Amino acid sequence: MAKKIVTEADRRATPPPPANAGYTPPRQGIGQTVSLERGTRTRSKKNPGKRPHQGG
User: Fold this and answer.
1) 39-to-23, 25, 28, 34, 43 alpha-carbon distances in Å
2) Cα separation of 39 and 37, whole Å?
3) Which pLDDT value is given to residue 17?
4) What is d(CA 19, CA 22) in angstroms, rounded to the nearest whole number?
5) According to DSSP H, which parts of 1-56 are helical?
6) What is the pLDDT along the chain (56 residues), one digit of tens a residue?
7) What is the DSSP letter of 46?
8) Using CA atoms, how far apart are residues 10 and 44, in angstroms rounded to an integer?
9) How much is the pLDDT for 48?
């Protein structure tokens, strides 16, 4: 017996199965909240050693 050809429109027409109880989908769009170079304790001064100093 031949398999039925399923198109993308057929896939989108069927609703997704219900999620399990207690499952929360992953959140998106939060982005970087703290500086990654100096850890979670510091929010500012991302590259303190690489910035030019005054004078010569």
Assistant:
1) 30, 27, 22, 8, 8
2) 6
3) 86
4) 8
5) 8-13
6) 789 998 989 888 988 888 888 888 888 877 777 666 666 666 666 666 665 666 55
7) S
8) 50
9) 63
**C-alpha closest to that of 34 among 20, 23, 45, 49:** 45
Q: Which candidate, 47, 50, 29, places its Cα nearest to that of 38?
A: 47
Q: The dihedral of CA 41, 44, 45, 47: what is its sign?
A: positive
Residue at 53: amino acid letter: H
Supply 55's token pair. Answer: 């004078």
> What is the model's pTM?
0.26
At residue 14, the pLDDT reads 86
